[in-house]
Write a structure and sequence with these properties.
By secondary structure, the chain is α+β, with helices and mostly antiparallel strands. 67% of the residues lie in helices and 8% in strands. Among the domains are: 9-82, SH3 Domains (SH3 type barrels, Roll), CATH 2.30.30.40; 95-195, Serine Threonine Protein Phosphatase 5, Tetratricopeptide repeat; 342-434, Serine Threonine Protein Phosphatase 5, Tetratricopeptide repeat (Alpha Horseshoe). A hairpin with a 5-residue loop joins strand 5 and strand 6 (70-73).
């Protein structure tokens, strides 16, 4: 840090000016070793180069978190955009392990993955006691989607320090990302035992338990995690998804709203809120707006075909049929084996474009592909098959598949679609009766 050149009022003014330069959501970097304080007590320690998001400002103080929220002085932080230059200065006269560590960490946050990992590997080589440096390298490798290398790096760190909670958290996350659930649970749960007040291992244990269908146990971990760190977007999203699967849509909406307040550009948070709004069904225009916003944020479209599918589905209910078809077409273009999008498109064609023989043929081909796949049959699949059968005059087939759709939606929801499915079931049964065919 620059020497203290001012005192009294001048120093106070300088500090407050620094704080005003940062806003919630900004990424800042610690200039030096800095304690994170909560109610005057140290809850965490960060080193130079550590990148953190600002979640709140208060005069010359910034609230930050990496699993345990607290406050740091604004004077101890630098904007991420200026950090690489700042931490490169020592290299003009000869850099040490900590200099490589700091610059490497910053480069990772700037998505300069190769350069950042090279710096961190150099730090490990130069360090007399490489434990902490190995942990930083492992997290860098996770950020670069190099999970096997990260697991190996964390294993080296754990070999040297068996009770290193950060290394166990990192290796547990690496195992979770590659689907080694048993190993992930072991490491993350041990990290919880070592640091029970840290939100990081709890949020991933909660997500893992959710994936395994253990919703009550997952809820316990995620509820605890959000109390420990209410500023963590991942926790809010994970809890929102869990609450949605438990059928508590209003609570789920609250969590996704909290996530978007923390990061308005988080695609999963915005899209998750749209999914919940659609399931509730009261404000479909807001659901549509969320999906449109999420699409605007997307970089790699091929990974987000579901956004166009969800947007198309909402637009069907809003009566925007040409727009809906355009977006469903886009979803299938991005992901040709996307069964849900094909089902929605087939339903839409049968419902609104049944006089177009070419489109009806497309709907039939969509459903042939869907029914030939190994994926489980959903409400949307059965609903579409029923509607296409109806358009083709196969009233018996329509009724058969609508019964399956009704049974599926009663089992899995969303609840508001139960009444819709039941109304269609009665309509198909009535059509069958009118042509003199017994049910």
């Amino acid at each position: 840090m620059a020497a203290r050149l001012f005192s009294g009022f001048a120093l106070l003014f300088a500090c407050c000016s620094l704080a005003s330069a940062f806003e919630p959501g900004d990424l800042v970097v610690a200039r030096r070793d800095v304690p994170i304080l909560n109610s005057g007590q140290k809850v965490d320690q960060i080193g130079p180069g550590q990148v953190l998001a600002v979640v709140e400002t208060d005069g010359a103080k910034l609230r930050v978190s990496r699993g345990r929220p607290g406050w740091i002085d604004a004077a101890d932080a630098i904007a991420l955009r200026d950090a690489e230059t700042f931490f490169s200065k020592p290299f003009a006269t000869g850099a040490g392990a900590r200099d490589y560590l700091s610059r490497g960490t910053v480069r990772l946050s700037l998505e300069k993955h190769d350069e950042g990992i090279a710096d961190l590997k150099k730090a490990v080589e130069m360090a007399n006691e490489p434990g902490d440096y190995l942990e930083s390298l492992g997290y860098a490798q996770l950020a670069a989607n190099q999970q096997p290398a990260a697991i190996e790096t964390f294993s080296r760190a754990i070999h040297d320090q068996p009770d290193s909670a950060p290394a166990l958290m990192g290796r547990g996350l690496g195992y979770y990302q590659v689907g080694q659930n048993q190993n992930a649970y072991r490491d993350l749960f041990k990290a919880i035992e070592l640091q029970p007040q840290h939100a990081f291992p709890r949020k991933y244990v909660g997500a893992l338990l959710h994936d395994l269908g253990k919703l009550d146990r997952a809820r316990t971990q995620l509820d605890f995690a959000v109390k420990l760190d209410p500023y963590d977007v991942f926790i809010r999203k994970a809890l929102g998804r869990l609450l949605f699967d438990q059928g508590d849509y209003e609570a789920a909406l609250g969590e996704f709203n909290a996530a978007t307040r923390l990061d308005a550009k988080d695609i999963e948070a915005v899209a998750g809120r749209g999914v919940v709004q659609h399931a509730i069904g009261i404000d479909l225009a807001s659901a549509e707006a969320d999906f449109i916003t999420a699409i605007k944020l997307v970089v790699h479209r091929e990974d987000h075909a579901f956004l166009w599918s969800n947007l198309g589905q909402v637009q069907i209910e809003l009566g925007k049929f040409p727009d809906a078809k355009t977006n469903l077409d886009k979803a299938i273009e991005l992901e040709p084996n996307f069964n849900e999008a094909r089902s929605h498109r087939a339903w839409l064609i049968a419902e609104r474009f049944s006089s177009d023989e070419q489109l009806i043929e497309r709907a039939k081909n969509d459903l042939k592909k869907v029914m030939a796949s190994q994926e489980p049959r959903t409400f949307w699949v059965y609903q579409a098959v029923a509607r296409v059968n109806m358009a083709l005059g196969n009233y018996s087939g329509a009724l058969t598949y609508q019964r399956l759709a009704f049974a599926e939606v009663k089992k899995s929801g969303p609840p508001r679609f139960v009444a819709i499915a039941e109304a269609d079931l009665k309509r198909y049964a009535s059509n069958l009766s009118q042509v003199g065919i017994k049910r």
